[in-house]
């Protein structure tokens, strides 16, 4: 049997470890150990400095937060005090609201009562030298010729309403105040069927207070509904009635 021959290039000889490199390796290890210590020391110093900086920042923020908290507490206390004062004022206003409404109602009633002596006249042309009262008296005499003499006495005041408009060419209405309620009512009654007023384009209307106008405005839909249904519905001042049913209440 033939023996196999080994190729030395495939199985090289083991290296021989010299003694001197071992000493060099120890020296290198010592240098590395010294460098690691320096790095750790530097890192520790940086961490401590950063920690001190963060601590100062946190401390400063804490002081600011405490100061802000005190200001918020003061503001909250002021708000509570204002709320208390507002509640007291509101309570006082509620106490005064009822008598104020009663006074307003009473004033409206007095104004409404005083206007029952008045009539408004529309359609009378204007001129600079006009005598408004004389014109109003003559028109009323034409409506109620049987009382011509008395009408010149019982028509106390007659004047135009408002200021002359530069954009509205229509003549301003005239308000008449009578000293006799009976004569005022008679003129108002005859004016509804007066052919003289219709022929000349004149029109009488009642003089209502703001409160009366608002009440009539609220009542009008009910009056119209009744009239559309074939019923007789009418106003008497600021009140409305349906014939056979009585006053309309809202």
UniProtKB/TrEMBL annotation:
Top-level division of the source organism's lineage: Eukaryota
Annotated region (Disordered), positions in chain: 1-30
InterPro entries attached to this UniProt entry: Transposase_22
Classification via PANTHER family: L1 TRANSPOSABLE ELEMENT-RELATED
Protein name as catalogued: L1 transposable element RRM domain-containing protein
The organism of origin for this protein: Cirrhinus molitorella
Lineage: Eukaryota, Metazoa, Chordata, Craniata, Vertebrata
């Amino acid at each position: 049997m033939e023996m196999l021959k080994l190729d030395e290039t495939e199985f090289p000889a083991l290296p021989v470890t010299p003694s001197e490199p071992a000493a060099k390796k120890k020296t290198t290890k010592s240098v590395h150990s010294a460098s690691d210590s320096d790095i750790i020391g530097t890192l520790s110093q940086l961490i401590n400095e950063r920690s001190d900086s963060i601590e100062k920042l946190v401390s400063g923020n804490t002081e600011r937060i405490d100061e802000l908290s005190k200001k918020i507490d003061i503001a909250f206390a002021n708000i509570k005090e204002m709320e208390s004062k507002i509640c007291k004022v509101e309570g006082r206003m509620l106490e005064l609201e009822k008598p104020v409404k009663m006074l307003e109602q009473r004033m409206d009633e007095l104004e409404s009562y005083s206007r029952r002596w008045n009539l408004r006249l529309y359609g009378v042309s204007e001129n600079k030298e006009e005598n408004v009262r004389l014109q109003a008296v003559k028109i009323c005499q034409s409506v109620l010729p049987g009382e011509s003499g008395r009408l010149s006495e019982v028509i106390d005041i007659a004047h135009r309403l408002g200021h002359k408009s530069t954009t509205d060419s229509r003549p301003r209405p005239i308000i008449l105040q009578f000293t006799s309620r009976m004569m005022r009512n008679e003129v108002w009654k005859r004016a509804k069927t007066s052919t003289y007023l219709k022929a000349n384009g004149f029109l009488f209307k009642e003089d209502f207070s703001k409160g009366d106008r608002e009440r009539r405005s609220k009542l009008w839909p009910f009056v119209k509904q009744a009239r559309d249904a074939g019923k007789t519905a009418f106003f008497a001042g600021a009140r409305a009635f349906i014939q056979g049913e009585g006053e309309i209440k809202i």
